[in-house]
Input
Amino acid sequence: MFLWTSVIPFLVVGLLWLLIRHALRQPLWAEASSRIKKNRMALVALTIICAYGGVAFVDAVSWKDDKNSPAKSVLDRVFAKMPVEETYSAPMAKTTTGVPHPKPLEGKHLFGTDGNGRDVLYQTLRGCKTALIIGGLTTLISLPLALLLGMLAGYYGKLVDDGIQYLYTVLDSIPNILLLVTLLMVLGNGLDKICLALGITTWVGLCRLVRGETLKHRDREYVRAAKSLGVSDFRILTRHILPNLLPTVIITVTLGLSGLILSEAILSYLSLGVTNETGSWGNMIDAARVELAREPVLWWNLLAASSALFVLVWAFNVFGDAIRDAIDPRLRS
Amino acid sequence: MSEVPVLLQGETEKRLRFIRFVRMARFRTSLWSALVCLGLSLPALQGCGNNPYPKSDARRAIHYRILAEDPKTLDPTVSYTNTEAYVVDVIYPSFFQYNYLKIDPVELEPNLGAEMPTREDYVFEAEEDGQKVRKTGEVWTFRIREDLRFQDDPCFEGGKGRKVTAHDFIYSFKRMGDPAMHSPVLGFVQDKIIGMQEYVEYNRKRLDDKQSGDYAFPIKGLQVDPQNPHVFRIFLNQKYPQLKYLMAMHFTTPIPREAVEKYGEDFKTHPVGCGPYMMKEYKRRRSLTLVKNPNYYPDFYPSEGMPGDAEAGLLADAGKQLPLLDEVHFTISRETVTAWNLFIQGYLDSAAVNRDNFQQVVANTGSGLSEEMVRKGLVLREAAGMSIFYYAFNMDDPVVGGNGEKQKKLRKAISKSIDNQTYIDLFLIGLGVPAESPLPPQLEGYDPDYVNPNNTFDLEEAKRLLAEAGYPNGINEKTGDRLTLYFDNGAGNATARQMVDFVVRSIERLGIDVQSRTSRPNVWQDKVRKGEFQFISYGWLADYPDPENFLFLFYGPNVRPAPNYANYQNKRYDRLFEQMRAMDESPERTAIIHEMRDILAEDSPWHYTFHQVSWGLYQPWLKNVKTHPVSKDVTKYYNIDTEKRAQLWSEWNRPNHWPWILTLAAFVGALIPAANVVKRRRNRRIRKGPGRKA
Amino acid sequence: MLRYVLRRLLYAVPIILGVALLTFLLFYSTSTPEQMAVRGLSAKNPTQDQIQAWIVQHGYDKSKSEQFKKHVGEMFLFRFGKSDITGESIGARIREGALPSALVAGLIFSGSVFAGIVLALVAAYYRGTYMDRLITLTCVLLMSIVSIVYIIVGQYTLSKVLKLFPVAGFADGLEAWKFVMLPFIVGVVSGLGRSVRLYRTFMLEEMNQDYVRTARAKGVGEKSILFKHVLKNAMIPIITSVVLSIPFIFLGNLLVESFFGIPGLGGMMVDAITNQDFAVVRAMVFLGTLLYIVGAILTDVCYALVDPRVRLE
Output
């Protein structure tokens, strides 16, 4: 049985592909992409991101075998043969550890198993989807909000500007982590709610940026010319100002992605992270607090999760830098 | 400058060489001075290390413990957590205490009391439906020691602690009855002590009018002997054998009225009692220090114990005056990992052992301590604690609740799919007792040989029962849909998440689909109180060692939000409970208890998981350690070998400075070639002249 | 200037009111008074009667608008009242916790600013060499590690394996240093990547300015260009980023404090959040907001002081 949610990853990938193809027709982006192609580090980073995306994709496509069986993703099916042990076991070990009566393992585990005997490699791979959803969905929430309000505030000024500025100054004045925690308490558990809360806390910075940029462009000649030709405000905003904002926005968003992915781990530490069923590097790292205090030290869970997280964030950081350098060489560091 | 005469070039070379020499010299001197500074700071650093306590305390008889969180209150009328009890119980002793060494069965003995109280029948007239009826209750007469004095405190005249009288005991009962205090044990006595109900209602009205409690209002059932201020009587309108346990809890400690009046709201952080220790200092989120109370009455270490105690060295201090230590120092830390690390380094004398760190303690290959622990000389002690951990079904739920035969079978099937022994092995490292009934070991009615037919793990039987319940292989016979259950939990940390996973997986072996729903603690509590769940995991720790304190968890009138969370109702059970409650320990009572246990087994409103074992790890220098299942004032018996501790502290904690010195050296080393590159570049520029960008 | 500051302060009033309203609404939707009462009472199973008494005692039985008015009025007078859960004075607790927080966070903060500037200077001075590349590469690596891992691994290696510092705790006076060192090192290292990268960008931006070229043309040495000209001018953006983070010094570092047992405001806030202590969180959010606004004004004033091109109107 096919699940309708399985269509979403295809849609996302397709949409991304279309967007990139469309963008590359424009000279600015075409030039940027040719610059990125020359940057070897950026290509490595991009490959890594794509690899993570691939794992997430494979994990997102799922279906039920029959009405009464649970939905399983492709990733689940790949690892279906991997037996679940009783409890912790070291990488490639033959028995479990940390219990009075160690039992022989039923399978081989490259990265060992966690407290519930689940394969750490499998758990780590499952974290890819969560991390990318947190990055992507949050951006999908905060970006339109920031663009809309920022452009409105910058373009119309006066009362609209005052109102929107007031709104985001109030939000900004509350220490970020407190706002996040409070929102999560109101909204409850779940990945979607974490994304919503992160979106509400992160749109402010972007909105401020968009407003400033819009303000700059509002008085440029091309906008005035369009206005005097009687072009509607909506058209000016979407057709003239928006494309000019995009470079700055894309740079900020790409560089912000790594921060979003990292915040999942911090939320897990405050026990506000995702629930049990969702694969999560944050929960794995949180478990390591206790595992590191044990003897023998149970390091594999921490190592696997934090290196997976590290590589992805590193890739986003490097790629973000590359995009920035490619789009706006003045900012090159 | 590009026109520098060729003649001068040699000159420039020389000057440049000179400048380079001076620079090098400067660089060298700075390098040397840095090295000298480093060398000088090394001995200073040797002095530091990971000891969190002042150096001067290294050889004092101070017992170091951990407190898992800031005490919410140290007011003996209100405090109700185990954490606080280790502080409150040694500041505020009660009429009774539990004998420290005789723990199986536990034994009450007078503490502030001069002798065991006497109990007599008490006949009184009560009004029932407008008619006067004669009823039989009982009266308890308590005689307290005459050499009791409160600790010294500015609230007393001249700062000297005054004598303790029976009035101070009555005063604490009156505080208990003040609704503004929210005393957790008021429910125990409110309907039993004659006149208490009226007193509570009177003060409740005052609270609604925003007035403070009036303790002058008399309670008929609490009387001090007019002849002797060291004797008081409690009149009860029914038989209440459990009163003796209440008189061993800190709720009934004598409280000095002066202190309450002087400190008001701050009384809860400024305790004034008559116990072996008194509070010296409390720093929030940091530490709490207790110090020996010089006014404590002559209390002596017991001179007889159970068989084997003498061999274990538990009688070495017999007859010595208590307390044996100068101070008890509590480090306050929420992080279990922190506590564990402190303990491993020797800076805590005992570890608040929990699931998280316990697995490290035990050897990988079997039971007993791990090699590392044995090498350190640590001592592991265990005693079955009085607790029950369970999964409660919501008896009002249309799927798992109800008393129909099919629903019972469904509950039994689920119950039999959970393997308690594996659960205990995984999360408690084998140190728990698989539960067959709500009654923990050491309690009347506990039978080690009893096996509950509907609770013990048996997967095949569980599958059969499930089929009989109408869900063969987890599929609903009628609809053909898979049975989905919701497991509500408040799992906040990694271990709790693992436990949830374990139970979900266990039940899913039957073919049932189990969805875990995790909520924030406050929401979860709310769900439990309101009954918005199918099944939940919960635990109960004994208030006192009487089966009544466990069996009341199923008593009909105690339905939610009272602790009968399952909303279990059974008329016959309720009748037996009322009968049992008023009885003293006897074979007849035990028979009734067994009958109640069997009713529960048949109806299966709970899955019993385990009875916790109160285990502890103790450092080799801590003496007189015996784990008591109930008592919390154990620190007055402890003793410490300070020499041994000081020696082991330095042995276990030699700081290692090399890694950071190497890191620093690597950084400086990496700088030198870079400096050369820049220098070369600059020299090139000087030779070639300016105008070239760097 | 004074007029400017006053005007900015006046602007702050509606913002603080907005923050107060927002936190009020948010916290009301997180827990009902009944839930708070259950958490606040010590009994295992409080009766309905006890819960009602608690609600009356803590004033949660009044209408919402009345409560809001009362709370806001008290906030502006810095009367924070009593904690809902423990009943102690919040003002006293804030005063108690401010010092440890300020000590730890202040040290971490100044340490990372100092180390950041030094390393950024090194990178700028050796720009183009492998040293520069090494530093920028390390920065990206450092930035990619989540702070929790720094904390966990830092405690494990420095305290447990190398036994250099106590695992956690705090003491008064000079004794404090040995407890502060571990959070200090962990805090500085975890923030280093970000700050070095930022400061380096600031410096390189200044290096490309015309005045630097002029100075070079005059024959000014590379060192004095870096220290006299570039550093001075790069300080302007650095100061901005520094002043803006001052409120966070006061609020302390939530994670570091709760993990290393520093009895500061950050840890207090974590406790308050987990206990749903509405009164404490409200007070902390109010103070945080106030400090943020003051910080923002200070930034602008600093700008005007440091950079003569900026004028406050």
